Amino acid sequence: MYQENTSNYKWGYILLFLFFLIFIYGDLFPSTLITDISPAILDMNTIFLSIVLEAIPFVLLGVFVSALIQTFVKEETLARFIPSQPILALLPAVTIGAIFPVCECAIVPIVRRLIQKGMPLHVGIVILVSAPILNPIVFLSTFYAFQTDLTVAWARMGIALIVSLIIGGIVYSRFGNSWQLKEEKGHITHSPHTYRNRLSETFHHASDEFFDMGKFLIIGALLASVIQTFMARDLLTDVGSGFLAGPAVMMGLAYFLSLCSEADAFVASSFKGLFSTSSILAFLVYGPMTDLKNTILMAAYFRKRFVLSFIIIVTIVVYTVTLLFDLFYL
């Protein structure tokens, strides 16, 4: 295990050093090398870098919060704040999700660590799907992006709240309190008692988890950039103009674009007039709950069967609720 971690650190530091060299001395490359490259490849490169650079600060935030939970939060503390009744436990989970100012990139390691510490699976999943949407930063960005139609901002929060509770209930009915993480239950290293050692342990866990997640982030960003570059958007608008097809198309678009929840409202606002309000809401709710990048990050920690079931549950619930919203509210 020690040799494996040392190897990960070594390659991580090498990649960071190469990235730093390219960032500093990239303008010294011959211009002919750039002009000969296809514009589509340049667009893909730009999108890839924007996704990675946008996600890294939130991933760092997530792994540090995860490391702090690992080091300082005791299992007994979690048990005191979570009701023993499974349905009642959903309400504090949504509350925690609403006060966590993190996006979908950062919430995965946090939820994984909470589950390791003894949090029930369905409670952790409610936090995972609600935190990227219900936090104040996302509300303000959506409010600003849709200033001419404030219904979208409020409806996004309301639908996300309802969907999160339904998903939590379904996950509990389907999986109960079963262990769905890849590592064995109880496989947690406990922190020393002194403050200095705990601080050192926090940085150790954070750096270890950052390099562990980094490779999955890069793979997800690369796939998302390829799809964004070569996807025919005109075809999307033609197919997605219907009542049933619109939300489905926008959910698929949200999944593959893998946008950060703090910025996706500005992209969604560009589709206003092309898609219905319910379709735009499906985009805004579904993307932060599950997207291509997030799926790869989840697959690093959770069992594949659970990840697949999670995607199916989220897809069905978001699609159904947005259609009902269109029927009974709009």
UniProtKB/TrEMBL annotation:
This is Permease. PANTHER family: UPF0718 PROTEIN YCGR (PTHR34184:SF4). Keywords: Cell membrane, Membrane, Transmembrane, Transmembrane helix. Pfam families: ArsP_1 (PF03773). Belongs to the UPF0718 family. It comes from Halobacillus campisalis. It is a multi-pass membrane protein. The lineage of its organism: Bacteria, Bacillati, Bacillota, Bacilli, Bacillales. It is found in: Cell membrane. InterPro entries: DUF318, UPF0718. The chain crosses the membrane at residues 12-35, 47-69, 89-111, 123-146, 152-172, 216-233, 239-258, 265-286, 306-329. Its main location: membrane.
